[in-house]
Fold this protein.
Amino acid sequence: MGAKSSSCFSRKGKSLTEYYTELEAIDSADFIRQAHNNDMIPYRCDKCGLWHLAPKNRQTPSRKCLSCTDAQGKPKELYFSRDDAQRRAEIILREQGVSLSVYECPENSGFHLTKH
């Protein structure tokens, strides 16, 4: 079973549980789904490299774009579908009050977010 992370925290400041393998994270997500009727999905953390769980409705698959950067020069997130990008924009609006638009990446297959 997983252990509490010393480097990764939820939005509420709680330590996330970390899993060393994807299979371990999948097993834990299955247990949570069956025991608590809570639909979780594993993801590999960019910060620690281990696996965590997130509510399925918050999952917006993406990767770092190799061509496009944000205003600070960091690689932009490249969302695999317009729907994933739009869902992330809605989460950010709800949680941070920042309104973002979705646009197609001019260099790669995918979508980015930008401020209005």
